[in-house]
Sequence to fold (673 residues):
Amino acid sequence: MSSYWDGNYIFGQYSSEKWGHESVPSGVPDSNEQEEVVSSIQGKQNSPFLDLNKHPPVDETAPVDDSYHASGYGGDGGYGGDGGYGGDGGYGGDGGYGGYGGYGGYGGYGGYGGYGGYGGDGDHQQFISPGTPYVHQNNSDVGGYGGYGGYGRYGGEAPPILDSLYLKKTVFNSLDELKKRIQEIANADGFVIVTRRSKKIGGRTGRVWLECDRGGEHQSTATLRKAGSKKTGCPFYLLAVRNHPYETWEIKDGTIEHNHELCEDLSAHAFVRRFTPSEMKLIEQLTAQNMEPRKIFQTIRKQDPDRFHVQKDVQNVVAKIRAEQRQGLTPMQSLENVLMKNDFIYEIREEPGTEIVTEIFFLHRDSRVMWRAFPHVMMIDATYKTNLYNMPFIQIVGMTPTNKSFIIAHAVVSKERGDNFVWVLERVKSMLDECMEPRVILTDRDLALMGACAKVFPDASRLLCRWHIQQNVMKHCKGAFTDDDWKKFMSLWGSLIESPSIPIYDYHLRNMRKRLVECKRSRVFKYVYDNWLKDYKEMFVFAWTDKRRNFGNRTTNRVESQHANLKRYVEDRTSLDRVVGCVRDIVETQFGEIRKTFRESIEKTMKHHKHPMFQHLLGKVSHKALDLLHGEAIRKLDVLERFNSSCGCQMWHSCGLPCACRIEKYMREGNNC
Fold:
């Protein structure tokens, strides 16, 4: 491939010289020139750069070559032959911007016809100096701005598009415009342009060397992983020079040869996969919202499907953003920094005699406010796969009178043992005054956790999660039944644990045992009785649990819901400081929603609450409490009167609200609730 400037067209005449190689007079150094390297790309080995102090002299007083005559832009000549950048006519003609020929020959970038025709862009045109506009007298001639092609178009041995007169003579208003245009042409040709270095002249960037991104030689410093490079020492380069009087930019020198094949797909080039400033801003915003990199990538991809980005590019940017946020701190320092900045109350426990952290307890100040206001019910459960260290993550959850869940506190523990749970629960208790304690604690059957609850909160009623018990029964017993028989057994089991009184419980227990023995499934009865009913029935059967003030909570589903909510924010096994950031977002969102439900209960009146019985309660109790009372009033009318059924007083004992029999008494005596 020929050199960029071999046989070039300079100031209206042909020349084989290269620009930029004539030295300035000796002894006149330019003290204002400074070199600025703006790219980490290394130059080709053993290939010296152009002397930065040499540039083509321009004598503005010299007479203009008469090839730029008054009638146009040249003569009838041509710009090549059948295989190159020319044809039968050329860049000139009788009066303007072209002749018969055009931008190529049979095998080149054009053919017959081309960039012009008869006539042109006027009569009296005057060329002032290189890089300046032409002065037109607007006396149009016949013809015009003819065709741009012919038989050929980029065929045969024609050189790439960068070897066009367009680039040699085009003046750009800024360096950014020049880079953008050259990058577009280079990408269309199948390679990428990068900045190799630049030089300051008079305190401002005056020269910039652009090269192929495969230029230079790769010097690997990798020691732990295999490294490679696309660099081949490609000799391609262009020199862009700022025209001082006019503050414009031009290409003044260069070599357009490549020593590698041009690419049909540029997706492997990191330069074309760079994000724009608007895309970077979007990634930062979505990262701050704890969106996963794969979802961020899909969002950007939908905005511009034609870009070359891959998911790894987004992951790298997200990792860089998070590294900047850590500010070089260790993981533990970063965690404490986040806890302090976001108004958390926290304590850290270390292993005696060492500095190894074994437990971390933290709670948000908004959580402390809610915990002190509503300490009646506490639910505890641990989740996993939330942090880099794979340590169990404990969530402690409460509930409000408006039936909303809120997070009390969190803890990361090294092991799920009694001592670890006791330390966490003591921290929870320390957030309350001495006279305040939870009335009910709900857990699964973790013996270490149950023992810790009994030690720290001895007066609280301890209940077991009904859902976890049912899952265990299903795991050990379902194999002994057909599908139809299993449904019948689950109906018997549900009637047993929902027994409203102890006599009814005894009746359902005898009935279930009889039927299981008759169908030769006594092993099933033995499992449920020995493992659950014998020692733990008071912790999950309604006849006992509904005598405690549990406010309708019989499972740890509220905690499971908070686990799921947290994992929507947190990626699998992320850093602890990011976990704390997600907890902050969740707690602040919960606090706002809970405040809203209280204001609605005070200011908003539901249609089904407009009953004379509730007239003194409107705006003073929550909508949830009024809904429960409304349900009890309906039960009193539809059940107690029609079927002469007993009340059971479940609502009175478990929620502290008037049950059906008490509502009936109030109505009979003419009183309101």
